[in-house]
Amino acid sequence: MSEKLVPYSENVITTLGEHGVLLVNNETRTYYPLEAMTPLTFLSQPIVNVSGSGDSFTAALTSALLRGKNIDDSICMGMTVAQITARSPATTANKFNLNEIELSPSMWKRYQL
Asked: How many helices (H) and strands (E) does the chain have?
């Protein structure tokens, strides 16, 4: 399905809930599973509320892109913020560790399909 949208957009990003994120564009198909390459402290906490996770992903992705990050890093930052949000009882986490978010691109696995 994502491939059909590529002619209309530079990048097609599909969130897959508990399965991660898929990026499709003219150059690549990249799958970002919710698997960290290094231990992330927040991932050890249980998911308590997924409300707001998608919005958090989009906000972090957009923020990273507007700050000049590439699409790969931006997706990873979005995944980090979404996962932190899912572990908060509120619809958005009330506290983020900016250093953890900035370092997150090196922490998430990704696979070229």
From this structure: 4, 4
Q: Which long-range contacts (CB under 8 A, 24 or more apart) does 11-19 make?
A: 11/71, 13/61, 13/75, 15/54, 15/57, 15/82, 17/50
CA-closest candidate to residue 54, choices 24, 86, 94: 86
Tokens, residue 21: 């994120």
Q: Does pTM surpass 0.85?
A: yes
Q: Residue 102: CB partners within 8 Å, gap ≥ 6?
A: 77
As a whole number of angstroms, the distance between CA 2 and CA 12 comes to 6
The yes-or-no verdict on residue 13 having pLDDT over 90 is: yes
CA–CA–CA angle 74, 51, 107 (5° rounding): 30
pLDDT band at 35 (very low <50, low <70, confident <90, very high): confident
